[in-house]
Amino acid sequence: MRPVTIERGWSAQAEGSALISFGGTKVLCTASFTNGVPRWLTGKGKGWVTAE
């Protein structure tokens, strides 16, 4: 099994980030926060998550 490493706080521009390495494979994950939800969710007590 390839060694796995997780380096937190990798990107200074995002509220949260991590660089995950599996041998020679690397994945950069970032998270950002914006106040509010889409209009159609306003007042429903629900959150909103998107991914690219």
Q: Estimate the global geometry from the Cα principal axes.
A: elongated
By DSSP, the count of extended strands is 3
- Ends: how far apart? 28 Å
Provide the low-confidence segments as ranges.
none
- Secondary structure: helix percent: under 10%
- Helix count? 0
**Could you give a short account of the major beta sheet?**
3 strands, antiparallel
H-E string: EEE
What share of the residues does DSSP label as strand, in percent?
A: 35-45%
Averaging pLDDT over every residue, what do you get?
A: 91
- Across the major sheet, the strand order is 1-2-3
Indicate the radius of gyration in whole angstroms: 16 Å
Computed structural class: mainly beta
Written description of the protein model:
- The chain has a 3-stranded antiparallel sheet with strand order 1-2-3, with no helix packed on it.
- The chain is 0% helix and 37% strand.
- The chain has a domain at 4-32.
- The model has no long low-confidence stretch (mean pLDDT 91).
- The chain has 52 residues and is mostly beta strands.
